[in-house]
Amino acid sequence: MSTPRTVLVTGGNRGIGYAIAERMIADGHRVAVTSRSGAGPAGSLTVRAEMTDSASIDAAFTEVEAQLGPVEVVVANAGITKDTLLLRMTEEEFTSVVDTNLTGTFRVVKRAAKGLLKGRFGRVILLSSVVGLYGSPGQINYSSSKAALVGFARSLTRELGSRGITANVIAPGFIETDMTAELSDAQQKQYLATIPAARYGQVAEIAGVASFLAGDEAGYISGAVIPVDGGLGMGH
Ligand code: NDP
After folding, report:
1. Within a domain: residue 113?
2. Which of 151, 170, 200, 210 is at a distance of 20 to 30 A from 221, taking alpha carbons?
3. Of the residues 18, 142, 200, 220, which is catalytic?
4. Is 234 inside any structural domain?
5. Does ligand 1 lie within 6 Å of residue 233's CB atom?
6. What is the ipTM metric for this complex?
């Protein structure tokens, strides 16, 4: 049993974020989720936050700190896709995905950092994707935003590693959620054919890794990229 921590999961009202929040509650942590709509799992504190807006992120942290204490584990999970081929991709489709997935993570981790430093403990867990390093046609915006999170976690590790703070990246492959349900049948079939495990992943398989990274035994893991992709991205 790990030390109970205060955990904040962004985008915890559905999909992978919801499953991570559920697992963290089962692990005995105090859990808050950010949401724009709907609530996190039973036993979590739901606070409103928009990833493109620093003020709303600041307000969300302030509310969590008041109700649960300083945030010790940050799971930057909220993310979007706006898939289309490069020649059709508008600048807005590129920048809005980067703004949510990458700059949103910056806003969240920056807001968390002072508290982590003060407590001389922190676990920063960033949700990237196999396509960040593997590449994916039609996802130049998304894969760029997700690849950047690797540099983010590694730079953070070098900046804050001596203060008891770790920063790691989870790189999920094809996980069954609303996000992947949006892919066309052709895209889904194409992915399935390339996954060595010959199946899609489940949200609980991501939540288990997040749980481990937040736990006491993961204190010497930092700057790592942990694939949870059935072997899809091997070697990338
Ligand atoms: P979902 O689409 O099911 O959920 C996305 C979550 O992010 C929702 O809670 C959503 O809130 C929130 N969110 C999106 N944009 C914003 C924003 N601007 N401000 C605040 N919240 C926002 O995604 P998944 O659960 O599938 O994915 C979670 C993470 O895992 C993402 O970062 C994704 O890129 C990554 N991932 C997912 C994979 C998969 O196969 N599913 C594969 C690889 C990576 P709301 O409900 O209000 O829209």
Report:
1. yes
2. 200
3. 142
4. no
5. no
6. 0.99
Q: Which of 101, 115, 206 lies closest to 165, judged by CA?
A: 115
Number of domains forming the structure of the chain: 1
What pLDDT is recorded for position 188? 85
Q: Which residue type is seen at 206? A: I
110-156 pLDDT, tens per residue?
999 999 999 999 999 999 999 999 999 999 999 999 999 999 999 99
Residue 132 lies in a domain: yes
CATH number of the domain where residue 144 is located: 3.40.50.720
Does ligand 1 come within 6 angstroms of the Cβ of 107? no
42 in any annotated domain: yes
Ligand 1 center to residue 162 CA distance, Å? 31
- Nearest C-alpha to atom 45 of ligand 1 is from which residue? 36
Task: State the pTM of this model.
Answer: 0.98
- Ligand 1 lined by 37 (C-beta under 6 Å): yes
What are the E-state strand segments in the chain?
6-9, 30-35, 45-48, 73-76, 122-127, 165-172, 225-228
What domain range is 149 assigned to? Answer: 6-220
pLDDT of residue 236: 82
Q: What is the predicted pLDDT for the residue at 146?
A: 98
**Ligand 1 centroid to residue 179 C-alpha, Å:** 7
Is 142 designated active site?
yes
Q: In testing the pocket of ligand 1, which one of 9, 77, 102 has its CB within 8 Å of the most ligand atoms?
A: 77
